[in-house]
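One chain is below:
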Amino acid sequence: MSEQESLLISVHMPKTGGLSFRAMLEQHYGEAFKHDYQDYPLAHAPKARHRHVYSEALAQSVAASRGVNCIHGHFLPAKYLLLADERPCTFVTWLRHPVERLLSHYDYWQRVYEQGSPLVSPLHERVISEKWSLEAFCLAPELANVYSAFLWGFPVSRLNFVGITEFFAEDFRYFCQRFLGNSAAVPTVNQRPGGKSSTALSLSISDITAVETCHAQDMALYRRALERRQWRLGGV
């Protein structure tokens, strides 16, 4: 493989359809696919998270990425910025309305919790053991502006593609045609058992306003992504 072959770096924002997207990438890239889920960004305080990104960024190398054409997982993309100076990289991610993402995240943590599991982070443990309400979860400082936390130290303009979960089928088709040169079948976005949506959870209008204010940075990122999508589609 040429060292100049482009590397697709796919950032899986929690509860945005990333598992469905991952399945397609795994099928497309085969042995050249690598998952990167070991960082658990939300399990660490910001300072520890940022120190980890710096050390990981310095550890990346073209040699270590040889044979890999796609990396997908829960990580801060700044981790691969220095590698992008040495090898062409395409950065992509998906965003969802921040309030809807929070509802889905809360519902998911309630359903999958397993006491003593190494996959349960300290924060997840607190949410369950302290019986956080939906409102408390949505307004918790530890979970404020998740998108912005993931994109720390990374220029948003460096993202080559931002899909919108609410338009998953359309944006999925665009991505496949634009970046993979194919027309893969649109997968079903991961749903809770029984096909029920987490949108069955609800917040009052006043609570929604409070949550949007708490997550103002992510709301701005989401609106910017919608505008970027509209521009891509040829709209005003």
